[in-house]
Amino acid sequence: MSYARRCPTPEETRRAGAELVPCLARGDVVTLVGPLGAGKTTFVQGLARGLGVTERVTSPTFTLVREHRCGPGAPVRVLHHADLYRIESADEALDLALGELVEEDAIAVVEWGELAPVAPGGATLTVTIARGPDDVRLVTVDGPLAAVRADALQRWAGA
Ligand code: ADP
Ligand code: MG
User: Fold this and answer.
1) 16 C-alpha to center of ligand 2: Å?
2) Which ligand 1 atom sits nearest the alpha carbon of residue 137?
3) Is the pLDDT reported for residue 119 higher than 80?
4) pTM of structure
5) Hey, which of 3, 115, 135, 139 would disulfide with 153, CB 3.0 to 4.6 Å?
6) Sheet strand arrangement including 3-7
């Protein structure tokens, strides 16, 4: 099953990210799929806002992964934000050990997550962003965790 939202502006894409927070729990790895400029980082900015992160969120291009402290009342303490665009080998992705990091009261979100497995066997949601006509983005959520979070995702899609 997949869930989708139409996001005509960057702010709508951020809102889709922020409103995904009730669908998430500690230990989740969210994979973001879509071409350069699709709006992956924009979506993460919204997700971070929904988690009460106050730092500015940009693509962690040169570090592969950045750690953001979530605000009080967030369901987890830390958001890990990775970007595998410049990854050179699958081993490099595994070295990030995101699957282990998220067990410590965190959620991870991974741009270009389809390029390498970061959390083999881990529970994942996949967010795919496709460009439509004009600036419209279609944001679709599926993946192994989608069935488990079906009720929350249905609310997300209808928001
Ligand atoms: P990615 O991380 O996928 O490479 P970014 O989020 O960095 O993409 O960039 C997306 C760009 O597209 C931004 O400049 C943003 O302002 C623009 N944009 C225009 N319309 C939208 C939209 N509806 N949703 C998201 N981004 C949009
Ligand atoms: Mg990006």
Assistant:
1) 16
2) 23
3) no
4) 0.95
5) 3
6) 3-7, 137-142, 124-131, 29-33, 106-111, 78-83, 65-69
